[in-house]
Every structure is written in C-alpha cells, then in structure tokens.
Amino acid sequence: MAVGEKTKAEVEKYGYNVWAVPTEFYAEEVAKLLQGYCGRVLIPRSSVGREEAIESLKKLGFEVVPLNVYETKLLDYPPEEFEAKVKLSDFLVFASPSAVKGFFANLQKLRDKSLLKDKKIICIGKTTKGEWERTFGTPCETPEKPTMEDILRLLKKLA
C-alpha cells in the first residue's frame, strides 16, 4: 500500500506491486483499506511522525512496527533573512505540520509580526490546516486534494 500516487510510482520503480492507494491521503483512509486483514505492518516514517495511523491500525488488531527513517529538523533563520523572504511573497504554502511549526518558531523572533497581514495562506490538507489554525488562530485555504498539483490549481485561482 502507498499513500498517494507519487509514492506508488516510486515504489513501483523498484519492481514492487502496490495493491492499494487510499482515495484520500489520511491515516483513517489507510485503516479503512486494511479492515478485514491482520498481521504486522511496518510504517517507515519521520521521527516526529503522527500517531493516528499507528493507533487506527492497532485498533483493527494489527501489530504495528514504526520505523523512523528520517528526521525533520527545524531551521533557525537569522531574523533579517526570514523577514526578507516572507516580505517577497504573496502566498505562503505549507505542505506539513512541521513546516507550520518551523515557520512559527522563526516568526516569533521578529518584532513586527504583521508580515502575514496581506498574505494568502495555503495548507496542503486537513492535518496541516489544523496545525495552522491551532497555531495562528486564522483560517487557511486548502486544495481539493492534498497534492502539489491541486495546490498549483488553487494558486492560479487565488492569484
């Protein structure tokens, strides 16, 4: 199983068969596809990966083996560089909750936090949107599907 068509294509490049891709790219959808099955599930993920998929699969009776295969490291920008980059943009696009957290951490170092006042904020999907709204208390736009292609369509629509 792969979560997303691009991941499926990458896995298939190595000669493996992907038997399922959820229609929506969220943990609940993965669990739905595995209802009625049992066994062990290996989940390669980030060291700060979310727990929803693991918990959903455990509830279905699976033994779940999380395997942290990469780390997400928040970068600490010099305030002047961070501010200059944000000022240049019309849109801010977030593709993960970690991106929201890293952005917020850097924003906190600025005296003038009104930089976002006229920016259009786009979050790739409901998980990232939830992180944005919890952190900033303001809404963001989300594409129809959580893909970069749909983000591009949304950018064109909002421009």
TrEMBL record:
Domain of life: Bacteria
EC number: 4.2.1.75
GO molecular function: uroporphyrinogen-III synthase activity
Domain (Tetrapyrrole biosynthesis uroporphyrinogen III synthase) ranges: 1-152
UniProt enzyme class: lyase
Gene3D superfamilies linked: 3.40.50.10090
Residue intervals passing through the bilayer: none
Keywords of the record: Lyase, Porphyrin biosynthesis
SUPFAM superfamilies xrefs: HemD-like
GO biological process, one term: uroporphyrinogen III biosynthetic process
CDD domains: HemD (cd06578)
Catalytic function, reaction form: hydroxymethylbilane = uroporphyrinogen III + H2O
InterPro entries assigned: 4pyrrol_syn_uPrphyn_synt_sf, 4pyrrol_synth_uPrphyn_synth, UROS/Hem4
Pathway where this protein functions: Porphyrin-containing compound metabolism; protoporphyrin-IX biosynthesis; coproporphyrinogen-III from 5-aminolevulinate: step 3/4
Family according to the record: Belongs to the uroporphyrinogen-III synthase family.
Job description of the protein: Catalyzes cyclization of the linear tetrapyrrole, hydroxymethylbilane, to the macrocyclic uroporphyrinogen III.
Entry protein name: Uroporphyrinogen-III synthase
Species of origin: Thermocrinis ruber
